[in-house]
Design brief:
This protein is of the alpha/beta class and about 210 residues long. The chain has a single domain, classed as 3-Layer(aba) Sandwich (Rossmann fold). About 50% of the residues lie in helices and about 20% in strands. The chain contains nine helices and eight strands. The chain has a five-stranded parallel β-sheet. A three-stranded antiparallel β-sheet has the order 3-4-5, with helices on one face. Helix 2 crosses helix 5, helix 4 packs parallel to helix 8 and helix 7 packs across helix 8. The longest helix has 17 residues. The protein is globular, with a radius of gyration of 16 Å. The N and C termini lie close together (about 10 Å). The mean pLDDT is about 95. It binds 2'-deoxycytidine-5'-monophosphate. 2'-deoxycytidine-5'-monophosphate binds next to helix 2, helix 4 and helix 8.
Length: about 210
Amino acid sequence: MAKFVVTIDGPAGSGKSTIAKLLAKREGFIHINSGALYRAVVYILGDSLDKDSLNGVDLKIEYRDGNFRILHNGIDITESLKTEALGKKASNVAKLGFVRDFVNMKVRAIPKSGKFVIDGRDCGSVIFPDADLKIFLTASPEERAKRRAEEIKGDFEHVLEEIKNRDEQDMKREIAPLKKPEGAYEIDTTGLGIEEVFRIVVDLVRRVYGNRDS
Ligand code: DC
């Protein structure tokens, strides 16, 4: 089977991972969450890391029952990567070129043949600029904070502040800043439920998949 790559980029809380997971579950895609790799890097090395220590890290990506897992020295660390504190630190190290090279190399090595969906900040602009379909999800900071606060049962105002800081940091960095990739379909998800966003995405995916050359 030929390779079919869909990228989903967007700011924190825009629903990228949720939609990517649904594509995996319902449409048979293999999901790669690039943000989880930045989180794994800081989880293992902290945020004052250097290139040599990073290159010595044994980090592997595996699929179990269709789910993406990250293994460090053979131990599954995926569930430990989900905190907002780690997201913030991940955003700090994501400014460093050698960290981006490390993550990009790991992610690019995965898609061989089959259907893949990759979510993050620069998947359509830098990691897979030739993706078959690029999606850019947005939503107001308030809407994203509301979703995140419900998910992690956190305080709305605090989460909103963190989301705004992370947006600023991810959009203003010099290397591979968060932006709408060229040729991407932008979907503003403010006020939309998950199923409504999924319907828009899956219609796009099926249309492009149906029209592919091979
Ligand atoms: O999507 P996330 O919250 O798990 O991502 C954590 C941080 O990692 C995010 O704030 C910025 C960085 N990141 C990145 O720079 N490029 C990506 N492709 C994915 C994530």
